[in-house]
Amino acid sequence: MLRYEPSAGPEEAAMPLFLIERNFAEAVENENDPETRATIKAVNDEIGIQWLFSFLSADKRKTYCLYEAPSPEAIRAAARRLGVPADTIVEVGSEFGPLAAAMTPLREQVGAPAQAPA
């Protein structure tokens, strides 16, 4: 799992969360390179999005990435600049399930509003 810390502080409004499916898992190895990560962060900062973390599918053919972003269009713009796909972008809402309560302290830490139980 690759991870970046959210950028929003208590004084900043929380942005929507998006899950991105990418069909390019072979490139994931390069994302651990410090220079590659710096490039991704610079482009994302310029566009105003934040990469939170990614999962690699069990068959190692896709990645699923969680982002904070103002819109799907901002994610697509960053993907185009970085030369990576953003095959499917889905806005995600409230967390639910056995670990949902664990998200509350994380949301409070970044100043995001608490989510109502589903």
Tell me what the structure shows:
By secondary structure, this protein is α+β, with helices and mostly antiparallel strands. The protein has one domain: ORF SCO4226, nickel-binding ferredoxin-like monomer (Alpha-Beta Plaits), CATH 3.30.70.3090. It is built from 3 helices and 5 strands, in the order ββαββαβα. Strands 1-3-4-2-5 form a 5-stranded antiparallel beta sheet, covered by helices on one side. Strand 3 and strand 4 form a beta hairpin. Helix 1 (34-47) packs antiparallel against helix 2. The radius of gyration is 14 Å and the shape is globular. The two termini are 26 Å apart.
Concise structural overview:
The protein is α+β, with helices and mostly antiparallel strands and 118 residues long. The protein has helices spanning 34-47, 72-82, 100-109; strands spanning 2-3, 17-22, 50-56, 63-68, 88-92.
Strand order of the largest sheet: 1-3-4-2-5
Q: In terms of quaternary structure, what is this?
A: single chain
Radius of gyration over all CA atoms, rounded:
14 Å
Structural class, judged by helices and strands? Answer: alpha+beta
User: What is the name of the CATH architecture?
Assistant: 2-Layer Sandwich
Count every beta strand, where a strand is a DSSP E run of 2 or more residues.
5
Distance, first to last CA: 26 Å
What is the level 1 CATH name? Alpha Beta
Percentage beta strand: 15-25%
CATH superfamily: ORF SCO4226, nickel-binding ferredoxin-like monomer
**Largest sheet descriptor:** 5 strands, antiparallel
- Write the H/E string, N to C: EEHEEHEH
